[in-house]
């Protein structure tokens, strides 16, 4: 794991834009000084969705793209439960209590010339900033993105602008029918590094598909503090019987083969 | 000048605000956010003889105005706490309250004896009330006789004053408080979490892997306040009160109910700066209420309500 | 067709939704809002031998996701309940669960004997758990032996099945449940309120005139659910579960945890139409979850979590 | 007490206007069919300020004026605690969950030719609709209204249009210095009926001032259900040792001399 001691801030940011970009999928852009602390694609922020005790806890959301010039960043999330549905009600101009940046992102430097970016559902967003960063370094990126169905697909065009992009949908309503692994089965493994974010079964399938490759995976766990203090989000590791990592502060990105999920 | 200091057995506190055990690790994470020397004291994570890996995940679940946790006392074990965590905290001018957990009396004694020797440990908090560990802990907190014996055993070996952390999951918390007082406790800390559960309505499965967990946060404050109010009138032990404290008014409430100082747990997760924020707001709040000293406020509700 | 009926001792319910005692008076007020015959049953206000005027006001206070109450069992007394309230309810096609309270065994016996004769009373709910009455009630609910004796005494005189309403303010609710089972109870209702307190931070005074009150509402749901889950696995008595039920998902949770039916209290104050709303939503929700009958859902969490 | 069995409705009403009309005092107008059920000045509604469990309970607010023609009514309230402060954040166009109308209002018919309307602080609002109703019946109304200070005075002009209006402020920054009773002391008691709403000590002082007059007072109590089911809001009465009333459903208006507060 990579430990970057960036400064964590809590800021009352301003919402610049919020829009529904796919079925229940929202793109939310906020502005504020906290943006300046961001150090790598794949970091996340911890959002307080209401100034109320209900819902009580913050919600972790990945950073999907950063606009340092305007001190803005964008998140993409699915309005699913109580908290994210409340978040979806917010409008441009509203204030948003954001804690971050949190965690360590994807190690952009590890890729050599070509990378596979493999994402599933709401695991896709952090891969977008990652794709931009890799492209900037001259690394070719291929994007393999899985969604439920056509209506839930987002950012296809944006990814296409950065490299070859393959879409899989569970019901086959767009792109390949099935999971990202169905796409991967048919692609030559002509990359040096893969990066992946999505549901745990997907991460496992991806790791199993490329046991010999260098890979980095972003994990999810239920969180409370988001900063490493509460031990809510631990995972065991393959290092030893007693070794563990905290997804929030040691992760959420880990090298393939490290985390036992 | 408003006097926010509080004098308790073993503890000379700058102010009555203390992050509660398990919600603040060993301070390292919050030290990235603010200077820990601002705090009244720090209650560090429960320490056991051996390192513990804790329970499977998910370990937390949100509930209405509260949360459940079943961390399972994950901690690096006594040796690492003594060699790494506590020495690291010495850079701050803040007394440490070391939280001691175990499954047998011997466990508690071993940890208490060793950890009370650490130079910055000014008091022990004996966690006899963790609801998330199968093998024990909770029985110590629910049976007055066992609680008393454990208190005696720990007192016999501790170099510093001993506070017993009470469980709210009891019929009669006053009887437990009196028992640990008889056992020689120097103070009480209360409350630990209420045992609760959340299910996923889609599947019927508990959200927490451990099935049940400890309820904390604003939801439990009324229960905590009632217990502090009762216990403070029926024992002479000082109390560090906690349970849902989320703002300076909550601190006032706990002091009014009879707590001498206040611990903040879950609220750290909602606002990681909450402790220093309350520390800063407290003098003005006291002034507004017409008090010069924190200690004047302690137990004012008792004096107001004579049944 | 989704089957929402529930068969319990003395009670053939159209559906498992029951307004809880003390939150629905004797039905008159809600009858102005909707047809009471839609309900599974009605738990009417606790009845005592003599009329009771209850506690001084304020009797309620809001807390985070909950409320405190100390009504003090205000009710018109057995005679008026028998002569006016219950006959009035006969116009509706809905079984009544009469809630019995008192301060001595004789009180309970007297009310139980008389009220169980009312033609529309299909079951009794024995409130051994009211935290708001100084002279008693609560001790019946916190001591297994006393609870058992009271159950036997009431069973001996009741013409209809007897459900005992358990207090959550105990160390070991399973032991109380087992005791009342041994005493011959036909079922359990749980939970009553958690004893709590709210202070006014300005003055330090309790907001509730009675000082402490019973905590109810969404805040307590995790505790209630945990208790239903535990008790339903360790006794064979059917349970009417309650504590924070506010929507159809909450009903699913209580059924999953092992309750056979569900009572709704505080939520009536937030949305007076909540009971019929849930009744209407339940079939669709069951269908969504793939169940044809309410009874199939009961205790599904037990089957899912084999430790 | 007067028992009117109007229909109680729960309606998702629409906010037509909300504005701050004095220091922390808001005037809120809503529109919807529930308005049609209103039967007397002095009734109240029970408002759910947020679609959240926190705050949990509804807030009782009096009806300050009714516009049957447009199915609208207006409330005036002080943003004080958690709930009313949240209410104050709402804007025109927002939905508002209203339960009502509740309780029995002022018995307009009891006044003969001249009435005193005596209000204190947030007890003033229901007197406005009452004054309109009395004037409509040809009854002369005199308004004696007490406030904290000049900044918290509201509706002075509106009342003046309906009859003689005297203002008292505690600090003397506007009108007579002191309480409404200081004004009353100096006014001839040339009325047949008084109506009053305000803090309990004020109600008691008013009753004590006119022991011989017919009077009607509107009381406040902490409420839960607001409809008479929970017994939160009871008061003893002078009728007997065991008699009581529920403020929400038997009141909030009672004849002078009935309620023991
Ligand atoms: C590091 C990290 C990055 C994430 N990035 C994104 C993202 O970019 N876009 C996106 O849509 N989602 C993301 N998620 C998942 C997102 O946090 C959850 O979908 C969200 O918390 C659900 O909240 P809710 O209010 O909708 O659900 P509720 O059911 O109301 O949530 C209840 C509680 O469970 C937690 N919870 C529920 N689902 C999850 C989950 N899948 N992961 C972690 N906690 C959960 C909530 O945070 C909350 O504490 C991320 C999660 C993590 C851990
Ligand atoms: C019949 C009736 C009519 C009313 N009409 C008006 C009006 O027209 N304008 C106005 O400004 N106020 C009115 N009030 C008072 C108003 O209900 C309270 O100011 C309000 O409930 C306070 O809520 P909060 O969220 O600001 O306070 P919080 O302190 O958050 O309230 C906590 C709890 O206490 C209750 N509460 C607090 N103060 C009072 C109070 N004075 N009376 C009753 N319950 C209280 C709340 O309803 C809530 O349940 C009326 C009260 C009653 C009973
Ligand atoms: C995530 C979490 C972990 C906790 N771990 C411990 C612990 O290790 N030892 C302990 O004595 N109490 C532990 N507690 C209990 C808290 O110290 C505190 O007693 C309780 O949470 C009530 O306070 P609060 O409502 O402010 O959180 C923990 C609480 C939480 C929420
Ligand atoms: C205002 C109020 C009055 C109550 N009165 C009674 C009562 O008279 N008898 C009784 O057995 N329970 C009484 N209860 C307890 C409820 O029946 C129920 O057990 C409890 O409130 C938990 O359910 P809830 O969270 O859905 O309200 C009362 C609760 C409230 C809120
Ligand atoms: S969420 Fe608290 S340690 Fe990771
Ligand atoms: S508020 Fe429930 S009876 Fe009046």
From TrEMBL, chains A, D:
Residues 8-108 form the FAD-binding FR-type domain. Binds 1 [2Fe-2S] cluster per subunit. Binds 1 FAD per subunit. Pathway: Pyrimidine metabolism; UMP biosynthesis via de novo pathway; orotate from (S)-dihydroorotate (NAD(+) route): step 1/1. Transmembrane segments: none annotated. GO terms for molecular function: 2 iron, 2 sulfur cluster binding; electron transfer activity; flavin adenine dinucleotide binding; metal ion binding; oxidoreductase activity. Keywords: 2Fe-2S, Electron transport, FAD, Flavoprotein, Iron, Iron-sulfur, Metal-binding, Pyrimidine biosynthesis, Transport. The keyword DNA-binding does not apply. FAD binds at residues 59-62, 76-78, 83-84. Pfam families: DHODB_Fe-S_bind, NAD_binding_1. SUPFAM superfamilies: Ferredoxin reductase-like, C-terminal NADP-linked domain, Riboflavin synthase domain-like. InterPro entries: Cyt_c3_hydrogenase_gsu (IPR012165), Dihydroorotate_DH_ele_sf (IPR037117), Dihydroorotate_DH_Fe-S-bd (IPR019480), Dihydroorotate_DHASE_ETsu (IPR023455), FAD-bd_FR_type (IPR017927), FNR_nucleotide-bd (IPR039261), OxRdtase_FAD/NAD-bd (IPR001433), PyrK_electron_transfer (IPR050353). One of its GO terms (biological process) is 'de novo' UMP biosynthetic process. Its cofactor is [2Fe-2S] cluster; FAD. [2Fe-2S] cluster binds at residues 225, 230, 233, 248. Responsible for channeling the electrons from the oxidation of dihydroorotate from the FMN redox center in the PyrD type B subunit to the ultimate electron acceptor NAD(+). NCBIfam families: PRK00054.1-2 (NF000797), PRK00054.1-4 (NF000799). PANTHER family: DIHYDROOROTATE DEHYDROGENASE B (NAD(+)), ELECTRON TRANSFER SUBUNIT, DIHYDROOROTATE DEHYDROGENASE B (NAD(+)), ELECTRON TRANSFER SUBUNIT-RELATED. Belongs to the PyrK family. Heterotetramer of 2 PyrK and 2 PyrD type B subunits. This is Dihydroorotate dehydrogenase B (NAD(+)), electron transfer subunit.
From TrEMBL, chains B, C:
The keyword Oxidoreductase applies. PANTHER family: DIHYDROOROTATE DEHYDROGENASE (FUMARATE), DIHYDROOROTATE DEHYDROGENASE (QUINONE), MITOCHONDRIAL-RELATED. Its main location: cytoplasm. Binds 1 FMN per subunit. Heterotetramer of 2 PyrK and 2 PyrD type B subunits. The active site is at 130 (nucleophile). Signal peptide: none annotated. It comes from Planococcus salinus. The keyword Transferase does not apply. Pathway: Pyrimidine metabolism; UMP biosynthesis via de novo pathway; orotate from (S)-dihydroorotate (NAD(+) route): step 1/1. This is Dihydroorotate dehydrogenase. Keywords: Cytoplasm, Flavoprotein, FMN, NAD, Oxidoreductase, Pyrimidine biosynthesis. CDD domains: DHOD_1B_like (cd04740). PROSITE patterns: DHODEHASE_1 (PS00911), DHODEHASE_2 (PS00912). InterPro entries: Aldolase_TIM, DHO_dehydrogenase, DHOD_1B, Dihydroorotate_DH_1, Dihydroorotate_DH_1_2, Dihydroorotate_DH_cat, Dihydroorotate_DH_CS, Dihydroorotate_DH_I. It catalyses: (S)-dihydroorotate + A = orotate + AH2; (S)-dihydroorotate + NAD(+) = orotate + NADH + H(+). FMN binds at residues 21, 45-46, 99, 127, 165, 191, 217, 243-244, 265-266.
């Amino acid at each position: 794991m990579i430990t970057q001691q960036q400064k964590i801030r809590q800021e009352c940011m301003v919402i610049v834009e919020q829009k529904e970009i796919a079925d229940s999928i929202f793109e939310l852009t906020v502005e504020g000084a906290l943006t300046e602390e961001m150090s790598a694609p794949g970091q996340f922020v911890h959002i307080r969705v209401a100034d109320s005790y209900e819902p009580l806890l913050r919600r972790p959301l990945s950073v999907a793209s950063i606009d340092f010039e305007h001190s803005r960043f964008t998140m993409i999330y699915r309005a699913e439960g109580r908290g994210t549905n409340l978040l979806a009600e917010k409008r441009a101009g509203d204030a948003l209590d954001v804690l971050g940046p949190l965690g360590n992102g994807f190690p952009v430097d590890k890729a050599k010339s070509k990378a596979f970016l493999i994402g599933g559902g709401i695991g896709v967003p952090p891969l977008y900033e990652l794709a931009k960063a890799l492209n900037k370094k001259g690394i070719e990126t291929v994007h393999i993105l899985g969604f439920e169905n056509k209506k839930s697909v987002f950012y296809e065009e944006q990814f296409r602008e950065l490299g070859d992009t393959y879409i899989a949908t569970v019901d086959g309503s767009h792109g390949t029918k099935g999971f990202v692994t169905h796409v991967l089965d048919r692609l030559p493994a002509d990359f040096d590094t893969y990066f992946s974010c999505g549901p745990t079964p997907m991460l496992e399938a991806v790791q199993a598909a490329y046991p010999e490759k260098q890979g980095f995976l972003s994990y999810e766990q239920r969180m409370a503090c988001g900063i490493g203090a509460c031990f809510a989000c631990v995972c065991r590791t393959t290092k030893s019987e007693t070794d563990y990592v905290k997804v929030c502060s040691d992760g959420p990105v880990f090298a393939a083969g490290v985390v036992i999920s | 000048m408003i006097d926010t200091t509080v004098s308790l057995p073993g503890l000379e506190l700058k102010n009555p605000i203390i992050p509660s055990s398990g919600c603040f690790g060993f301070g390292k994470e919050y030290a990235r956010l603010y200077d820990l020397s601002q705090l009244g004291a720090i209650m560090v994570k429960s320490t056991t003889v051996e390192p513990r890996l804790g329970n499977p995940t998910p370990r937390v679940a949100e509930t209405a105005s509260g949360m459940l946790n079943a961390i399972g006392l994950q901690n690096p074990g006594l040796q690492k706490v003594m060699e790494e965590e506590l020495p690291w905290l010495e850079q701050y001018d803040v007394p440490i309250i070391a939280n001691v957990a175990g499954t047998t009396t011997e466990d508690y004694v071993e940890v208490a004896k060793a950890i009370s020797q650490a130079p910055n440990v000014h008091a022990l908090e004996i966690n006899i009330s963790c609801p998330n560990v199968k093998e024990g802990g909770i029985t110590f907190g629910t049976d007055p006789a066992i609680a008393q014996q454990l208190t005696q055993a720990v007192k016999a070996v501790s170099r510093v004053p001993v506070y017993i952390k009470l469980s709210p999951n009891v019929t009669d918390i006053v009887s437990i408080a009196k028992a640990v007082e008889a056992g020689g406790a120097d103070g009480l800390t209360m409350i630990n979490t209420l045992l609760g559960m959340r299910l996923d309505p889609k599947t019927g499965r508990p959200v927490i892997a451990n099935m049940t967990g400890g309820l904390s946060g604003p939801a439990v404050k009324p229960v905590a306040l009632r217990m502090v109010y009762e216990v403070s009138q029926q024992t002479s032990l000082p109390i560090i009160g906690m349970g849902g404290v989320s703002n300076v008014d909550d601190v006032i409430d706990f002091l009014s109910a009879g707590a001498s100082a206040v611990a903040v747990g879950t609220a750290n997760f909602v606002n990681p700066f909450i402790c220093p924020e309350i520390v800063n707001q407290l003098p003005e709040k006291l002034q507004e209420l017409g008090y010069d000293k924190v200690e004047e406020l302690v137990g004012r509700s008792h004096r107001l309500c004579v049944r």
